[in-house]
């Protein structure tokens, strides 16, 4: 009986003498869902579907780039593929994925009964479906999908067909959904913490999401403004970004990246949160430097607002502007380094075991740091002049988004899925998934550093012969990486969704002496009952344990 | 630098040995001034700025690698020693203000150490004053236009497009023996003198492009409606290659940059040559052309400027089909002339980009090619009348 795919609506009936609420069953359970766990599940399944669609586009890109020359797609379609791969992965896979984790885990971690606005929660999920359909189906519109890059720079957007308007509409809807989700998370965290769960005792994952939610509320409207101006430029005769009427295409880039750079941290801060949960659990030690982790996360969030123009070093800013953005960007290395040091200090003198969540967490720290260093190299404006818009940039952001965000989500899945589903995933298969992903990921993206240094521009459907070998290696790695994720779904995820596997204990990651995972989510049975913490629990001094014996007390 | 280069060469050999998968089928050589086969690092620098950039990159790469190794040695030592399976018992510490302050300050100092040399190079690379030759590079979909604005060669102006046979090779899958400059060969390279400060002003006609040549250490976006500039002073003669670095539509991969750096004498000779050619090519706007001559001229103009969008057989593509088009076949030749001169939707305006003679030629060509058999002959004077 799992809380994830339980045909009878709720899992806790028998064990806990739950009150007879009226949770709908069948399709209504999902369409009318107001339970944070169900909505979390919906978000995660949606995110994985989009990961597969975006991944399929990536496979087509890599297939075309397998050899020089055009074999499979023409350059128009190639541009559509790269554009849609980016949009789908960013707005469809990574962002909703972390919202799914937030929905499942934030109420459980802070001892709240549910999210603050349960119906709005439902709405913000179901808005994603039409938005995603519009994005994906834009391939079948006249002129094909948008092909102006995921950054939709003006004035190239003015040359796009009607699908550009669909994409803009989809982004508007996804933005609205994100803002609703963020409001929900902020209100939940600020108002619904169990007594004794002070902010500075709150688990790191909830902390990172609190900060992320503020970032989202700050920048999603900025994106909405930029794409609305694009829309009116396209159809209503305005010339915000059209130089023919006195508009400024560079202004679009400024506005876009004012959204876009915090967006990057929106996609990585929750990942930091997950890693900060997993590493202490498997080191059997408390997180080192909890307070400095919180401050470092906040600093990264604040700095993220003043570095946007490092995406635009080649647009030709005044030298003082370039210097400012270069210095500010390099400064981000400091709080990020503090985080890495804290994780390693957490592992230091611990008693580590390496189940799949820990493998992904260590993999994250190792590979993400490479992406961090290439980021530092790219932050140097004089070097960026050579590397801007080359495969070096592609390598860099896949190191932080795939080996960063995606690996963290894998770590989070393996860590929390016993709590979600009530069964343990197959450890051997988890390890196969990890090693296969790690090797194929590096095989795909490491050679791209060389391609970028040698000057291969990104978003090219065809390239000079000298780039052939590394492209072939990258393509082989990409197919392998793609297949690894298919394996993950069919051999790891599906079995646990179906309830196949060993029954998960309440605290799967704790030794008999209690060392291991900490936090309120481990104070409820596995699978987590449909309703948890209906009465605020009484917490111990560190807010990691419940003093009451009953999790879901009898209703009166 | 030498040792580093040999290190990266050795690395390349090693990678080659590892990569049994690497296709020996493509017998391609490194392109001097362009990309090398399995090139691992930046291009060979031929300007001071590019050398400084390469130095900075090595400096950063080495610093980052050392930090990476130190940090992860600690992590892997810990993973090795502090495992449960070797019976390690967890310690209890979880904070230390001293340690945390230290490891906040150290990265901060390292970052400052990195920023200082970067600042020096950046300031130098932005100083475009006192140039000896100024050239405007204009990005078009999908070719570059060069206008020599100031200095020796002032007044020279030409378009630079990818060799159409390379575009064909790309379409047919780049099979067989490919030239080393595949996708990098242009009809008219940008020619500049060695050891002169050349200022490149960039702008664009339609969407944003980016003009960059790695060996020269320059990359500058070309933005419609705005002018930006950059500069280089090549210390070596030779051919140097770059490509468009900003997504600019479907033919983004097909608008390379080829800079030919000549010695002072050769450059002067080239300038003289160009000026003679320009004088000779100056078409008499009042010349009345015969059909066969103007058709031959029109075919060339079409291949260089129209074919990418309208197709070799006028069958259309991004652009409207011309074969069988009502406007092309219309008895009133001014209808087509207006569109060619002033553009319409995706069709760019060609007034000022092509001479009246070229426009007359290409319009005549389209009116009398493929299924279009109008027999109409458009003279330069007709174009002139319409462009007023």
Would you mind describing this structure in some detail?
The complex is a heterodimer of chains A (556) and B (388). Chain A is 63% helix and 0% strand. With 556 residues, chain A is an all-alpha fold. In chain A, α6 (128-137) packs antiparallel against α7, α11 packs antiparallel against α13 and α16 (391-421) runs antiparallel to α17. The model of chain A is unreliable at 6-20 and 551-556 (pLDDT under 50). Chain B has 388 residues and is α+β, with helices and mostly antiparallel strands. Chain B is elongated. The interface between A and B is large, with 100 and 111 residues.
SSE layout:
The complex is a heterodimer of chains A (556) and B (388).
Chain A: H1 13-16, H2 27-31, H3 36-65, H4 75-110, H5 118-126, H6 128-137, H7 163-191, H8 204-235, H9 249-266, H10 269-283, H11 290-303, H12 319-331, H13 333-347, H14 356-379, H15 381-387, H16 391-421, H17 427-453, H18 468-497
Chain B: H1 2-18, H2 48-81, H3 97-126, E1 133-140, E2 143-150, E3 157-160, H4 164-171, E4 190-193, E5 198-204, E6 209-213, E7 218-222, E8 228-232, E9 238-242, E10 257-262, H5 264-281, H6 291-305, H7 307-310, H8 326-329, H9 333-342, H10 356-367, H11 380-387
Parallel strand pairs in B: 1-5, 4-10
Antiparallel strand pairs in B: 1-2, 2-3, 5-8, 6-7, 9-10
Helix pairs in contact in B: 2-3, 6-10, 9-11, 10-11
């Amino acid at each position: 009986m799992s809380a994830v795919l339980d045909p009878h609506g709720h899992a806790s009936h028998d064990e806990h003498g739950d009150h007879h609420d009226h949770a709908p069953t069948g399709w209504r359970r999902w369409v009318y869902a107001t339970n944070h766990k169900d909505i979390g599940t919906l978000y995660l399944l949606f995110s994985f579907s989009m990961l597969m669609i975006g991944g399929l586009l990536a496979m087509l890109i890599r297939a075309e780039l397998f050899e020089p020359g055009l074999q499979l797609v023409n350059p128009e379609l190639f541009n559509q593929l790269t554009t849609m791969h980016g949009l789908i992965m960013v707005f469809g896979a990574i962002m909703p994925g972390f919202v799914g984790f937030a929905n499942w885990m934030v109420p459980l971690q802070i001892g709240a009964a549910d999210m603050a606005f349960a119906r709005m929660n439902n709405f913000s999920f179901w808005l994603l479906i039409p938005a995603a359909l519009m994005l994906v189906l834009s391939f079948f519109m006249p002129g094909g999908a948008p092909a102006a890059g995921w950054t939709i720079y003006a004035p190239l957007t003015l040359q796009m067909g009607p699908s550009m308007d669909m994409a803009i509409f989809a982004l508007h809807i996804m933005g609205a959904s994100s803002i609703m989700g963020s409001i929900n998370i902020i209100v939940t965290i600020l108002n619904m913490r169990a007594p004794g769960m002070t902010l500075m005792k709150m688990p790191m994952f909830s902390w990172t999401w609190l900060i992320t939610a503020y970032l989202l509320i700050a920048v999603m409207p900025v994106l909405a403004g930029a794409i609305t101006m694009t829309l009116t430029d396209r159809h209503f005769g305005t010339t915000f970004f059209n130089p023919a009427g006195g508009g400024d295409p560079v202004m679009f880039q400024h506005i876009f990246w004012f959204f876009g750079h915090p967006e990057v941290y929106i996609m990585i801060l929750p990942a930091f949160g997950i890693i900060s949960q997993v590493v202490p659990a498997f080191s059997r030690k408390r997180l080192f430097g909890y307070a400095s982790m919180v401050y470092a996360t906040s600093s990264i969030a604040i700095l993220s607002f003043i570095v946007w123009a490092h995406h635009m070093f080649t647009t030709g800013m005044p030298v003082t502007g370039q210097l400012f953005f270069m210095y500010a960007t390099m400064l981000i290395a400091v709080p990020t380094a503090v985080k890495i040091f804290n994780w390693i200090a957490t592992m230091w003198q611990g008693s580590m075991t390496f189940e799949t969540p820990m493998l992904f967490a260590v993999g994250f720290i190792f590979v993400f740091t490479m992406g961090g260093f290439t980021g530092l190299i790219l932050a140097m404006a004089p070097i960026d002049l050579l590397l801007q818009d080359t495969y070096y940039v592609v390598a860099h952001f896949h190191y932080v988004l795939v080996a960063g965000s995606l690996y963290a989500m894998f770590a989070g899945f393996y860590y929390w899925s016993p709590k979600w589903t009530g069964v343990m995933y197959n450890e051997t298969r988890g390890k196969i998934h990890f090693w296969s992903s790690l090797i194929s990921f590096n095989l795909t993206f490491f050679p791209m550093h060389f391609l970028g240094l040698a000057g291969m521009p990104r978003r090219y459907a065809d390239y000079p012969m000298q780039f052939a070998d590394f492209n072939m290696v990258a393509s082989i790695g990409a197919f392998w990486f793609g297949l690894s994720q298919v394996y993950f779904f069919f051999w790891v995820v599906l079995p646990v969704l179906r309830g196949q596997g060993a029954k998960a204990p309440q605290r799967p990651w704790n030794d008999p002496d209690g060392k291991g995972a900490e936090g309120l989510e481990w104070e409820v049975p596995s699978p987590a009952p449909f309703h948890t913490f209906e009465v605020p629990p009484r917490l111990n001094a560190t807010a990691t344990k419940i003093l009451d014996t009953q999790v879901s007390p009898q209703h009166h | 630098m030498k040792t580093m280069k040999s290190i990266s060469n050795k690395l390349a050999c090693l990678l080659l040995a590892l990569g049994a998968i690497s296709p020996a089928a493509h017998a391609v050589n490194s392109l001097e001034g362009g990309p090398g086969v399995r090139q691992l690092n930046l291009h060979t620098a031929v300007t001071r700025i590019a050398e400084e950039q390469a130095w900075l990159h090595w400096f950063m790469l080495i610093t980052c690698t050392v930090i990476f190794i130190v940090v992860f040695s600690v992590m892997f030592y810990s993973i090795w020693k502090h495992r449960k399976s070797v019976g390690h018992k967890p310690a209890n510490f979880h904070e230390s203000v001293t340690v945390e302050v230290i490891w906040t300050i150290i990265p901060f100092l390292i970052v400052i150490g990195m920023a200082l040399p970067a600042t020096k190079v950046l300031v130098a690379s932005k100083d475009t004053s006192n140039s000896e030759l100024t050239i405007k590079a204009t990005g078009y979909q999908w070719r570059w236009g060069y206008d020599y604005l100031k200095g020796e060669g002032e007044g020279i102006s030409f378009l630079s497009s990818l060799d159409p046979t390379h575009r064909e090779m790309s379409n047919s899958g780049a099979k067989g023996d490919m030239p080393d400059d595949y996708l990098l060969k242009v009809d008219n390279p940008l020619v500049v003198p060695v050891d002169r400060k050349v200022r490149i002003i960039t702008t664009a006609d339609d969407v944003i492009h980016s003009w960059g040549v790695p060996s020269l250490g320059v990359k500058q976006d070309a933005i419609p409606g705005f002018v930006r500039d950059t500069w280089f002073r090549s210390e070596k003669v030779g051919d140097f290659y770059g490509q468009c670095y900003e997504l600019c539509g479907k033919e983004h991969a097909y608008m390379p940059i080829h800079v030919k750096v000549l010695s002072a004498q050769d450059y002067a000779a080239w300038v003289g040559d160009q000026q003679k050619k320009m004088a000779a090519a100056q078409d008499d706007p009042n010349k009345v052309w015969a059909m066969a001559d103007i058709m031959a001229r029109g075919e060339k103009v079409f291949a260089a400027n129209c074919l990418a969008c309208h197709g070799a057989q006028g069958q259309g593509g991004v652009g409207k089909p011309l074969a069988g088009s009502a406007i092309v076949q219309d008895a009133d030749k001014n209808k087509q002339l207006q569109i060619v001169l002033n553009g319409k939707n995706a069709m760019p305006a060609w007034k000022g980009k092509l001479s009246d003679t070229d426009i007359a030629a290409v319009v005549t060509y389209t009116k009398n090619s493929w299924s279009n058999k109008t027999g109409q002959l458009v003279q330069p004077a007709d174009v002139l009348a319409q462009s007023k």
